[in-house]
Design goal:
Blueprint: H1 7-21, H2 25-39, H3 56-76, H4 78-97, H5 103-115, H6 122-133, H7 139-163, H8 167-178, H9 181-204, H10 210-235, H11 243-259, H12 261-264, H13 271-274
C-alpha cells in the first residue's frame, strides 16, 4: 500500500477540489466528471490488457452485456440501480483497497467511500441521491443510515491511518469527510482507489511510466469517454441537472469492471499481449 503522498500532484488535485467546492452543482458535476470519468477510469481502461487473448471474445461480450443491462436499469428502474451500484462499489473498494489479512479494515474501507460523504453533508447527499435514483421520498432515511456508518468508518480509518502513518488513508478519508459529496467522493476515490490501482495495473502490464501506460489504454479510454458522453446526453431527459447522467454513465463503465474483470484476470500479464517493445519493461 502506498503511504507517501506525491506532494505536487496532490496539491493540484486538492486545490482544484477546494475551488470546485465553492461552485454550484454544475461546477461540482464537471469536476466529478473529469476526476472520475477521465483520471479515475484510467485503471479500468486496462482491463482488456490483463485478459488472455483467447478469452477476449467472451470477456468483451460479457463486458458489453453487463454495461447494457446496467444502462437499462438506470433508465427504467433507477431506484433499484442506485443502491445496487453503491453496494457493489463498496464491496469492490473493500476488497481492492485494504490488506487481505485485515477483514475489518476491508469493511471499513468499503463503507467509508460510500458513506463518509454523508457525515457532514447529509442534506446535499439526500438531494444528489434523490436526483440520481428518482426516489426522493426514501432518500432521507437511506442517507441517515449512511451518516451513521460514515461517521463510524471515518473515525476508525483516521485512527488506523494515524497509527501507521498512512498519509494516503488519512488524506483520502479527510476529504471524504469535509468536502461536498460529489467533490469529496471524487477526490477520495482517486486517492484511495483509482490512483493506487492505476499504478498497480501499469506495473502489471509492464509499462515503464505513466505516459507509456496512457499510450496503451488511450484507445479504450477514448471509447469509454464517448460512451460516457452519450449516456449522459441520453439521460438528460430524465434529469436535467445531469446528476443521474453522471451516476448512470460511471455505473455503466464501472459495473463490468467490478463484475466481469475479476473472473478473467490472472494467469498472464498484459505486456505480452498488447504492449510494444518500446513501452514494455518485461518484468
Amino acid at each position: 500500500m502506498t503511504r507517501h503522498a506525491p506532494t505536487v500532484g496532490w496539491g493540484i488535485l486538492l486545490g482544484a477540489a477546494v475551488a470546485a467546492s465553492f461552485g454550484g452543482l454544475v461546477v461540482q458535476l464537471l469536476f466529478a466528471a473529469m476526476a472520475m470519468g477521465v483520471v479515475g477510469m484510467a485503471h479500468g481502461a486496462s482491463d482488456l490488457a490483463i485478459v488472455k487473448r483467447q478469452r477476449r471474445p467472451s470477456f468483451l461480450l460479457l463486458y458489453i452485456l453487463v454495461s447494457a443491462v446496467c444502462l437499462l436499469w438506470w433508465t427504467m428502474y433507477p431506484g433499484v440501480a442506485l443502491p445496487l451500484f453503491l453496494a457493489a462499489s463498496a464491496l469492490h473498494f473493500g476488497l481492492e483497497d485494504a490488506p487481505s489479512d485485515h477483514p475489518i479494515e476491508r469493511v471499513l474501507r468499503g463503507a467509508s467511500l460510500i458513506a463518509t460523504p454523508a457525515t457532514l453533508h447529509q442534506a446535499q447527499l439526500v438531494r444528489l441521491l434523490g436526483l440520481a435514483g428518482g426516489m426522493s421520498e426514501l432518500m432521507p432515511a437511506f442517507a441517515a443510515w449512511l451518516t451513521v456508518f460514515g461517521a463510524l468508518a471515518a473515525t476508525a480509518l483516521l485512527i488506523i491511518g494515524a497509527s501507521r502513518s498512512d498519509v494516503r488513508l488519512i488524506v483520502g478519508t479527510t476529504v471524504l469527510l469535509i468536502l461536498p459529496p460529489l467533490v469529496g467522493f471524487s477526490v477520495g476515490f482517486l486517492i484511495l482507489h483509482a490512483l493506487p490501482q492505476t499504478t498497480t495495473r501499469s506495473r502489471q502490464i509492464g509499462c515503464t511510466d505513466s505516459l507509456a501506460y496512457f499510450k496503451v489504454i488511450s484507445p479504450i479510454l477514448a471509447v469509454a469517454l464517448v460512451l460516457l458522453c452519450l449516456v449522459g446526453w441520453a439521460l438528460l431527459r430524465f434529469d436535467a441537472t445531469g446528476v443521474r447522467s453522471l451516476f448512470a454513465g460511471i455505473a455503466a463503465l464501472a459495473m463490468p469492471h467490478l463484475m466481469v474483470t475479476p473472473w478473467f484476470e490472472g494467469g498472464q500479464t498484459g505486456q505480452a499481449i498488447i504492449l510494444p517493445h518500446s513501452v514494455s519493461v518485461g518484468s
